[in-house]
Predict the 3D structure of the following.
Amino acid sequence: MATRKRELKTEKRTVRLCRWLPLILVAAIASTATADSGDKKSVGQVTLQVGTSHPTLIADKKQTSYVRIALTGSEIESTKKRPPVNVAIVIDNSGSMSGSKIDQARRAAIAAVKRLRDDDIVSVVLYNSNVSVLVPATKASDRESIIRQIESVQAGGSTALFAGVSKGAAETRKFLRDESVNRVILLSDGQANVGPSSPSELENLGASLVKEGISVSTLGLGLGYNEDLMSGLAISGSGNHMFIEEADDLVAVFNKEFNDLLSVVAGDFEIEATLAEGVRPVKVLGTNADIVGQKVFIPLTQLYSNQERYFVLEVEIAAGKAGTSRQLVDVSVNYINKINQTPEKLTASLGIRFTDDETKVSADRDLETLAFCSVQIANDRNRQATLLRDSGQIGEAEKLLKQNTEELKALKIICEAKDIKIVLPALEVNIELNRAQASSVRDESKWYSGRKMMREAQNYNQSQQRALPSGIKSSPSPER
Amino acid sequence: MPLKILIALLTLIAAPLLLLGWVSASTMRADRSTAQRQIEAVLRSRLKEIDTSVQPLFDEIATMLTGQVRLAIDQDTSSGDLQHGELTRFQRSQPLVQRAIIVNSRGMMIYPPPPPNSSEPNRIEEYAALKALAMSRPRHATESASAQTHSADRSKAATQQAPIPSSRLSAPVYHVWYRDQGTQLSLWWHQESGAAVGVMLARSRWMAELMARLPNTPLPTIQLAAQSSYKGLSSEIRQTPTPIEAIALYDESNRLIYRWGDDIELLKTPDTQLAMSEPLSSWHLKYYAAQPLTIPVRFTGLYAAIAGLGIVLFSLGAYVLTNLQRQIRLAKSRVTFAGQVSHELRTPLTNIRLYTELAQADLEGADGPATQRIAGRLSIIDSESRRLGRLVSGVMEVIREDEGKGPLRLLPYNADAVIDDVIQQFLPSYEAASIRIERIRGANQSLVFDADCLDMILINLLSNIEKYAASGGIAKIESLVKTSFQNEILCVRVSDHGSGIASRHHKTIFKAFRRLDDGISAPSGTGIGLTIARRVARRHGGDVKIVPSAKGACFEVTIRVTKANMEADFGKPLCN
């Protein structure tokens, strides 16, 4: 028992580490941004960076390449006003939440409400078998009565998760404004068992909410929740998904979620990548992008202060003649600057060259982009490994995870040699993650929490979580 | 006798109780089913209300999307955008829309464009599904007709690809399609040429909107609790009241979509359900009551009423029964007393007659006016004591129902002589009442019978004439012997010319203590004469009947007799 606990703790630390590391990473980007990492544009609140893993390609050959589109939110000046927040806190008060869980949930929600400004909008929705609107969408100025309401929450019943999110979104919609940050925060510890409850149904709901500018974050509490459903909802809902094993951590995680929420700098993104002739879009890794002809539309609801989000677009490039160069992609980004409430636009474009020289291809590789793309590719594989493990193909899952570990290790060695420091933390985290998972995939006793951690990490990688404020660069001290 | 009464009494008690029970039970049943129907009607109207309240959602969606689709299509048309850029934008930005579809007049899906062959399987699959949806779209009324008339235009491929001007689009039509998770809604706008624009709605989204429109579950009222549930904070505990009802929405395959109301199990069959309106007509709203909705039948009241009535009836019955028993006992003891008295009277009567006869015998031979007078008086004593004897015998006959039926003393007599003897007794009184006797003798032969019985019968009949029919002035006594069924029957008809007896009284006159005129002015009598006569005659295997006659009353006495020479039958009672 003690051994298992220690193991869990180790893994937890790993996950915690991976939660914080990208912060370092983005901070590094901010300081070491180089000219050779593709086209970089910055207007107002957001920086756009487009790069490809192989700017030089071998001639006369059809090949697959990766394009990385990165957006970075600027730092909020503490003196400036942050955008108003419109948040629905959706709390699972089913029977399984009774005891310390609901107690912590109350505390977390109260702490969150206390952090809101008077012009923020808050609503609290409870769901078990039925859905009750505890606090209809209202200005946070009447904090006392909201808190009193939250204090009276009790647990009991089943879990109507879909309806809970629906009602939470409906509350948010009452005060839906472009300038505010609209979010539904869902807290659950159980399986959805009343109403629509398949991951795809919830993903579609999340995707639909994103279209109108409402993002959904999901907090999974304990070992009983459906991580596929919760992480799927968060990914499609353009929010965060967090696995909280101990109820005691809830307040801290909630706080963190609120940190994100309160640091949104830009929103309502319209990211459009137009691929040139001869380049076919295949998919956007880990993102439910809309590909129509040569155009790729990537959904993104908001960008936090100091957060970098990047999307990896897999493309198929038709054979080109040596010595020629060709247009690869045009990227345009429209968004609302949430600080001044003004619409802003960024554009960037990228070309590629063809050569006969293999060594030149290798030498020209954009290792930074390649590394980030590799992380995403590994993440895709990690998902596959989860699927394989679910269907009982433990050996295959382990193989994929080990492959991830090896490939990322090899990449890490090259990057170290070339002294590209900013990618090292992400690589290290993922190497460690895949290694740890490869070892836990066989152990039935660790699988429950292991799988949830995997989902959290996958979601985390996919959404390239937020960056640290530039002040904190290393050894993060988690709030918990 | 008391057993019969007891049974009658119990029936008397049980019958109304059963009747009452049955009537009220059936009334209750009827009430219950009426109430049930009413409750169901109320609940259905509630469900209907809910259905009506969410229905605008689909109209709003249709109206809103119609505007947006028209705008997008118009913009695409005016800009000549064959890629349908605006429609794509609309599809991407409208939360309610999953996919937009354009079908040309040939029925070919021209938007979205087919995905490249190397695309991911789910994209190819989705495209195939959209194609299937486009095929199954609701057809415009004029479509099939126009498809033929427009066939000439089809050679122009360019027109097929051209975007459709929105002005020629019909009103939107909802189309229900089942795929993946279940019901998928799509909206279609048609054009006369047969082309159509469709929008596949995002299933999760319209479900979420539907849920948002459906009622929330009201929170239980807050009650202040003295102690906090967790340290440091005073908290208010929500008291959970007793659950009353829950309403749930189920989809076409009976999966629970949304529920509200109290947290009760939905395992049982719903108390009532209602299909939603179009387009979700395959979905159902179901109402569940926490407690069975049937009006709790308060049988206690009914039981109490029945029990109360039972007690009342029973005590009444018991009262009647005990009273009756007392009466019967009293009557019995009276009868016994009368019997004993009568019996006791016999002995002195016998002695009186004996001594009267002795005195008469003593006077025989003596002569003189005094002797004559004494003899006359003795004969009066004799006749009166005989009369008394007859009375006593009569009484005994009536009251001693069972024991009085002693064996008949069957001896050979000349029947006419016996009859004449009786008539003889009445001569003095008949003379006094100036009743003439007419005698027809038809039984002048020796027959075996109980002369006392015949005596008693005739005396009663004759004295009745004396009492009631003296006005007629005539008494006719006719005797004859008949043979029927190997039996000899002695038949005596006694008739008068009095006022007669109305035919409606013919049956009752033979009943004991029944007198036609019981007034004070009526002649003295006990009302048992005819009863005695009939009883005795029946005891003797015969009867006394009243027979129709032209004038007055005519009684026919029949008794079974045997001829005197038939020695073998002697000593064998004729009747038991």
Summary: Chain A touches chain B through 51 residues (CB under 8 Å). Confidence is low (pLDDT under 50) at residues 1-38, 465-480 of chain A. Residues 129 and 217 of chain A are 21 Å apart (CA to CA).
